[in-house]
Amino acid sequence: MGEATIGIGVIGYAFMGRAHSQGWRSARSFLRPALEPELVALAGRDAEAVADVARRFGWKDTETDWRALIERDDVHLVDICTPGDTHAEIAIAALAAGKHVLCEKPLANTLAEAEAMAAAAERARANGVRSMVGFTYRRVPAIALARKLVADGRIGEIRHVRAQYLQDWLTDPHAPLTWRLQVERAGSGALGDIGSHIIDLTQYVTGERIVGVSATARTFVPERPLPEPDGHRTGKVTVDDAVAFLARFSGGAMGTFEATRMANGRKNALRIEINGSRGSLAFDLEELNVLRFYDGTAGGEAGFTRILVTEPEHPYLAGWWPPGHLLGYEHGFAHQAADMLNAIAEGTDPEPSFADGLAVQRVIGAVQASAARDSVWTPVEQSTQVA
Amino acid sequence: MGEATIGIGVIGYAFMGRAHSQGWRSARSFLRPALEPELVALAGRDAEAVADVARRFGWKDTETDWRALIERDDVHLVDICTPGDTHAEIAIAALAAGKHVLCEKPLANTLAEAEAMAAAAERARANGVRSMVGFTYRRVPAIALARKLVADGRIGEIRHVRAQYLQDWLTDPHAPLTWRLQVERAGSGALGDIGSHIIDLTQYVTGERIVGVSATARTFVPERPLPEPDGHRTGKVTVDDAVAFLARFSGGAMGTFEATRMANGRKNALRIEINGSRGSLAFDLEELNVLRFYDGTAGGEAGFTRILVTEPEHPYLAGWWPPGHLLGYEHGFAHQAADMLNAIAEGTDPEPSFADGLAVQRVIGAVQASAARDSVWTPVEQSTQVA
Amino acid sequence: MGEATIGIGVIGYAFMGRAHSQGWRSARSFLRPALEPELVALAGRDAEAVADVARRFGWKDTETDWRALIERDDVHLVDICTPGDTHAEIAIAALAAGKHVLCEKPLANTLAEAEAMAAAAERARANGVRSMVGFTYRRVPAIALARKLVADGRIGEIRHVRAQYLQDWLTDPHAPLTWRLQVERAGSGALGDIGSHIIDLTQYVTGERIVGVSATARTFVPERPLPEPDGHRTGKVTVDDAVAFLARFSGGAMGTFEATRMANGRKNALRIEINGSRGSLAFDLEELNVLRFYDGTAGGEAGFTRILVTEPEHPYLAGWWPPGHLLGYEHGFAHQAADMLNAIAEGTDPEPSFADGLAVQRVIGAVQASAARDSVWTPVEQSTQVA
Amino acid sequence: MGEATIGIGVIGYAFMGRAHSQGWRSARSFLRPALEPELVALAGRDAEAVADVARRFGWKDTETDWRALIERDDVHLVDICTPGDTHAEIAIAALAAGKHVLCEKPLANTLAEAEAMAAAAERARANGVRSMVGFTYRRVPAIALARKLVADGRIGEIRHVRAQYLQDWLTDPHAPLTWRLQVERAGSGALGDIGSHIIDLTQYVTGERIVGVSATARTFVPERPLPEPDGHRTGKVTVDDAVAFLARFSGGAMGTFEATRMANGRKNALRIEINGSRGSLAFDLEELNVLRFYDGTAGGEAGFTRILVTEPEHPYLAGWWPPGHLLGYEHGFAHQAADMLNAIAEGTDPEPSFADGLAVQRVIGAVQASAARDSVWTPVEQSTQVA
Questions:
Q1: Pairing state of beta strands B279-284 and B269-276?
Q2: Could you say which residues from 275 to 314 on chain C have a Cβ atom under 8 Å away from some Cβ of chain B?
Q3: pLDDT digits (tens, 9 = 90+) for B369-386
Q4: Which of the 8 DSSP states describes residue B228?
Q5: How far apart, in Å, are the Cα atoms of B306 and each of A142, B282, B284, B328, D302?
Q6: Is pTM, for the whole model, over 0.90?
Q7: What domains are there in chain A, each with its CATH number?
Q8: Which residue of A164, A214, A302 is in closest CB contact with D214?
Q9: Are the C-beta atoms of B200 and B135 separated by less than 8 Å?
Q10: Which residues in chain A have Cβ-Cβ distances shorter than 8 Å to B1?
């Protein structure tokens, strides 16, 4: 009724596939994007399982081959929710087919793949085909507000960036050896899976790039039981359980980063604190509706203000509930969907671009190189511009 | 595919209508209720507006007359999301038509209406027709966990119940005189709108009833501008801006209650603290994924434990995201929908019943009576059983 | 060396006697009051015990009879740290002897005694003799800052005052029946002991008086074992375990108050929140270095600011440690001592006066009267001016 | 008077001299150490200033030459509160004179001095002369409780140590160039001043040693105005404003450390979090009465427990106030004094020893070496045993 529509196809129906499905339809319901998304097709290899998810989420159709999904005329945007080792092939094919592409993070498991993807996106862009990488946490309203406060000069020149992503689901040494613990499938461990988020977010919020790092990585539990039914045997963990690195930002700020799945009691603690010459900001994903802001110019009333980021004037909030009614994890996927749809409608490039995703991969590469060479300071290649 | 389905009709498409729409479909997507809900029809008087909401949320059809919705053969459950002064008529009609009914809180604006509704629900129950009142906050996982801890005896004999529901949207004396500020439409002010929630929740969590109260009420801003386009004129506020009351629970606990829309800076601060002989519990809706539990038997390590209620073993969590991935305000509507669907499938009575809703109205009535008589202690009529 | 000195005599050497001893000498060491206090004599009935405390705290001399202490020429200020039933006799005698008097709260156990004390203070005042009641928490820097923000109009017209003093040391039903649980010695239970603090503080911070109340009181454990060696027998608790009351302030604000020793897990939770038309303030004694301030005029950056009240520009802080170095419970006694010494030196009346202490007693009296008469609304006699 | 006494002499009367003065006398008043300290003499070069402080704090006598203080027969314990470049000379002389020595941290400004001091302490020890370095924060009750929980195995095998000491007093680029910013006087900047605390504390709490580091350091504001009256001229800052390093503990844990005076809004945020295989601990000096403990074995009730460390059964608390009555910054000095006095009385070695202080210096040395060599991994010399 009025709005133009756009056909969406999602590849993958597990954790991420469901989160994206909810994102597309919630965007349509609450956020009034300039293009109204239609949930055309959901793809997955197990026909029965994908059909079940598709029905529950309101998808019109299903596919068991991602190539078939890409070829559908009624699919205009391909959303890739599969593991990282498949991203490059699918994304490049979809772009070549003239479909807009949203690709889950990390962009790829290897730098070479990421570079190929960024090049493909750049080529497709000439034809008006848009691409975006799914660093969804950029769409947490408190994070978007943080970026705005930095851009408005409210914290001044940035001196410290302190970022942690702490989880604990590998604390138990008997937790099974899933694909996420195998370098061939996952590319890396905590570094790529969750470290990539804090690399992207700190660059996003500060508007600066990481230019060099010194790193260390550890695998605390080198051998784990195989997943059932092979749980009586063990296999080797070939990725990091935890990584930490020191960094320098392009504007001179000192960064400290840590990503781990071994921080007992921290379930999803993505924490960022930024200290500047005029003020500071602090965020914790376990309290995602909150941004803490220190205004260093406030004199005797200075202190960290706990901003409950649920007001209509806050980023992304206008379509949702009254003030004080919290958003949750999944809302970021709706915001991401709406942002991409609006960019397509406006003919602009959505962010973060594949080039931004490549920039994150280059930091990851430098971290791995430093950790392998006695933590020696390692510059990050800077061919791309971070948004 | 396999599950039986049930046709849902929602009446009302504003704030609550949207929240319930999201609830029904999210229940289907994530929670696998025993009956799979179909979004059959959405009713509202403005045909164009209701059609817009219906399309965005995936409703099959719309109605502009609630009676037409009730009469549809494909609607088996009627969900009433209209203002309180219409609840009785619609609910009684729907029950008479053999439809299961979910009715938003408060059950009604007057005790007489609430009594009639409870009686109608009791009659319908004999025919296997189920009814429930929408005190959705019972479905916040932290609240459900709190009830479980109390029921398991973890805090012992209850001595204190401290409940506040603090909002601030009437702080500004120039905020307009909406229907919520007129006694004919709203029944009461903060008392019925938000006070009803803490009355229900404290009875739910403790498993006890409020047996007597002493109350005071205030209207701080007695006259306000009319809504636009009549903003140049003012009208009289005929409901309370704030109410506070002391209470006694059936088990002997002392209660203190406060509901206000004038607590500057508190956006949606529904707070409950319960102190018992063995421990304590504390909750704040502005941090809805958290329950604080004090185990008084823990010796030198005792303290309030901040339980992040996002583990698969916590109430309602199994269908959602991994630990530490927060739920938001709207998830309670999905839990409520699933609970009602499962009760219907099992042939049991969902809770809270209309009788429970009536019990809340009786507390509200006693509060109003006490406030009108110099705060004198006023017993609460106890003909109903609280779940 | 330069400053004039003043001889201090303290009566009582238990909990309060020690706190005041530390207060007087820390005031001298850190706060540079206009009169330098000399710790002349400490009085107590047990000669050996008082001598031990006196030596450890640096008192020059001891007395075993408070009358002897009052008569000493080298004692110019008498500080009364004994139980409430002895305050009137000692204070009136000391004032009559021309000594300045600091009297611990509550001023007295009965209204009649409090009135006599206020009258004696008023008479002595004509001769330049100063008196003060020890509501020490007024000297917590965060509280003093709160009062300043209110006085500066930063929160506007006050609408809500929410005050609780929660402790848990009577949670255990086997805790012994000490003098604090006997009405003859203690006057009342939680009401006078800790409720008096929140009555005084809310009046102090708001600058308004409580003009009426509706109250309820409870004794959850009516019988307790006697203190050892009589622990095999039990006695009757004759004071309240907990009290709650609704209140109205002179400026129209609605107040809710609760004082209890049965709030499991709350050790010393004196909490005050004040909501006004422009902003709000919140304080918790269990986090005594912090004041939370909500500036309702801050737009999209509004939120409760956690002010760490340890800056040199904050009240009382100039003499202590660098920013961020916390003060503790006992520092209030040093601030109180310095305030009284400076008032004496300047020839002004220190606050809170005995009249202020009497005003608190009158609120306590109204609370008791209301609780005894079915919580009916009870006005508070207003013959005195609260500072 | 029962207890044996011991004569104390303090050298230095500024910030640290006052904190130690309060510590010695509060220990005597509240903590009943086995040796009762007598405040015999306070030394400082400015006779008038030192006499003023001495009188206010109750010192019997003063000296203007530290050598004179050491030679006094009535001084049995020398407490060194002067800047770090004077520690070695004074401490070695005092030990040679047979005096017990308490020396403020850091032990010395250079490794060579620290080694000489540790050797002198070892020699003196043979004669029953005791020595201790003043890492006072070990005496914060929450820290002592943390160590106990680790030692009791409550958090299992340690995997992560996350330590920050964040201050902000150099945020302003116009803050003057004091001696603390000159390498000759201060040895280093944030690293030695505040970084030394988190090095010592993490080793103390974990019971493990730091065995290697990778580090980076920064001076954000390289030139500052000289202190008045020379404020119109500027000088070069020759120490670090901030330092960060990665570390490995002897048990295999990964450490991340950061010390800065540029973290806007963080006044005294010494934060430590330790994640182990069974649980976790978290501490922040800006909330010094609190320890957060995560018991990973608690199932669905697991969460970080906010232990208010003010119970009589908690370390150091028995002599102070009732539960919930907070301690402040200065109380650690009283605990430190009592611990040293009790060790002397018992004939045992107080901790941390000069050898422990030397171990901290060696970590500092390794950090400086790594920062100077492109952050390359640098082992820490391990000739000493950390307590």
A1: antiparallel
A2: 275-280, 294, 296, 302-304
A3: 999 999 999 999 987 544
A4: T
A5: 22, 9, 12, 18, 8
A6: yes
A7: 4-137 (3.40.50.720), 141-379 (3.30.360.10)
A8: A214
A9: yes
A10: 51-52, 55
